[in-house]
Amino acid sequence: MMDTHIVILAAGKGTRMRSSQPKVLHRLAGLPLIAHVLRAAAPLAPRSTTIVIGHGGDRVREALAAWPGLQYAVQEEQLGTAHALQQAESRLAGATGALLVLSGDVPRLSAASLTRLVGHHVASGAAVTVLTAVVDRPYGYGRIVRIDGRLARIVEERDAAPAERAIREINSGIYVFSLDSVFDALRAIDAHNAQGEHYLTDIVAVYRHRGARVETVVVEDAGQIQGINSRSELAEAGTLVRQQKNEELMAAGVTIEDPATTYVDQDVEVGPDTVLHPFVILEGRTTIGRACEIHAGTRIVNSTLADGVTVLNHCLIVDSRVETGASVGPFAHLRGESTLAAGARVGNFVELKKTVLGPGSKAMHHAYLGDATIGAKVNVGAGTITCNYDGERKHPTVIEDHAFIGSDSQLIAPVTVGQGAYVAAGSSITDDVPAGALAIARGRQVNKPDWAAKKASGSKKE
Ligand code: UD1
Ligand code: CA
Predict the structure, then answer these.
(1) What is the average per-residue pLDDT within 406-429?
(2) Which of 105, 243, 271, 355 keeps 20 to 30 A from 374, CA to CA?
């Protein structure tokens, strides 16, 4: 087996995005464009992967910091795609075999297409193999000019004669080169074109001139090689990527009532018999178990739901865990590594931050529970607030099993409510409540008989 090395071109500014962010970091289905490219390439088990960075290069490095085995080449000035590839030469010193060149802005490629491309290149012994596609709207792409059926050269849109513009076979910007000859051939490329850039596409004509073998592989699903150059193309690609993800989920037994409004990131897992209602958004590293029901308007980010969980309408769940049979919402907010244990329930306008709500416990209405550890079968009344923040530091609240917190209570942390204890409604709890006790901490009620009538007659005296 021949070695495969990869270079990803990602130094361009992406002018057409009109963005302060490097183009390849714009997100598609939750991942930066360039991460999609890296994922497609991973199954090829490359000997090395070099990313050519330039515009916003530090940000690209930072975004890919967790990705193993990447090396970088810096293109200080963006003088064109050929110039970009030249920057990788020193990184590939001594390397032999096939060089797969990818574009950081072509995110929907499949690993299968890349494998086929490299396979054809190696088998045919070509100096370069270009991945092409036949499309209805070739506008903006380089055109594949064939003579007697063989690739003669690639002409960019801006440099194309009218007859060439009518060609519907386009250059994907993805190539495999023989490492023996590629950097030498690059040196023969000039910048005599409409943009005054060194075009990598010109290497085809250089190789032809030298009598080297030039091959093409036509990708069947042209959508795969769509490049992202504008926000509009980003949105278009987003729709297609989501569609594909939804199809995969449905094929695996997930009900999606309205795929058009269901947004599921690439890495999200959803178990069979789970129902996703319209306008559900599942992001990042989220895992949803079997037979869950997620109602409309809910967004779940980097969270885990076990089996049989119900999430009612309009909830936000971030970095949290919901165990089997628990129920959330409507209008609830879980965040900061909160956990709902099995069978626990959180209802209307309840916020949990870094809080564990134990098995079978309930907080059904209007509560804020922060930095709290709440045991099993606890009832948290409407309007309960853990006062966890003193303006400088956060303090914990502990509520032990079977405790009952009356409505509209404040638990001023740090504080512990013991097992089976009761807190009377409307209390401000500043001291620990012993197990089994009743704590009442509120002003006593005073009734003033006939007060209203006295007020009306003007004889009211206080
Ligand atoms: C390029 C191809 C075109 C092809 C299309 C497919 C050239 C001259 N044209 O056009 O034939 O149909 O891709 O999507 O190659 N880059 C650098 N440094 C530079 C210039 C670009 O690293 O100096 C990078 C960009 O960041 C991008 C990639 O190369 O990831 C392609 O550049 P872009 O300007 O988008 O080329 P296109 O005009 O799309
Ligand atoms: Ca492009």
Answers:
(1) 98
(2) 271
Note the pTM of the prediction, 2 decimals.
0.91
- Determine which residue's CA is closest to atom 5 belonging to ligand 1: 173
What tokens appear for 239 in the block? 């729709």
Token pair 């989501």 in the structure block, residue: 242
Per-residue pLDDT tens digits for 307-345: 999 999 999 999 999 999 999 999 999 999 999 999 999
Q: Are strands 27-28 and 31-32 parallel, antiparallel or unpaired?
A: antiparallel
CATH of residue 177's domain is 3.90.550.10
Number of domains in the chain: 2
Give residue-wise pLDDT tens across range 114-167: 999 999 999 999 999 999 999 999 999 999 999 999 999 999 999 999 999 999
Classify residue 253 as left (phi > 0), alpha (psi -120 to 50) or beta. left
Q: What gap in Å lies between CA 241 and CA 458, rounded to an integer?
A: 75
- The rounded Å distance from CA 338 to ligand 2 centre is 42
Question: What are the pocket residues of ligand 1 if the criterion is a CB atom closer than 6 Å to any ligand atom?
Answer: 9-12, 52, 75, 78-81, 83-84, 103-106, 141-142, 154, 156, 170-173, 199-201, 227, 229
